[in-house]
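Hi V.,

You were right to ask for the full record rather than a summary. Here it is.
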Amino acid sequence: MAALPNFLPVDEAARKYGLDLSRLHSLIEAGKIRAGIIAGETIVSEDEVRDEAVEQKVLGKEDLPEYQKHAHLKGNPIWISEAARKYGILQPTLSKWVRAGIIRIVSRQANRILIDEADVAYCAEIYRQRGKMGRILFNPDGTPYKPKMSS
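Predicted structure:
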C-alpha cells in the first residue's frame, strides 16, 4: 500500500517549516502546494511545504525530519567500509557522497577516512526511499533532490 500524504493546518506548517504565512497562501492559490479545508480549517501537504522550505533555503538537510531521526548519531565516527556493510550502501556510492560533501569527514587515520554516521544514516534513508540506479538523489547542499515538474 502506498503511503498516504500528511497534511497539516496551514499556520502550523508555516511555523514548523519557517515560511511566511502570506507566502504559503500565495503558493496555495498558485496551485504549487496542495491544500484542502476540513472543518473550516485550511490544511496543506506537509511534503510540499517542506520541499518549498528547502527550495527557499529556509531548511538545510539537518533540519529535515529524515535527518532528525538520526541526529543522535551526529559526530559518531564510522569507517566507510563499516558504513557500507551496516547501511547496505555500496562503498563507491558512499565515497562519492563524501567527495560531494554530503557526508562529512570526521577524521583521517592513515589511509582510512572516518565519516559522520548521522550523515550516512540520513543518506541511506533517502537512498532507500528514492534510490534507483542513475538517479540524482541529493542537491549540492545535501537536501533530497526533487525533479522539476514539466509544465
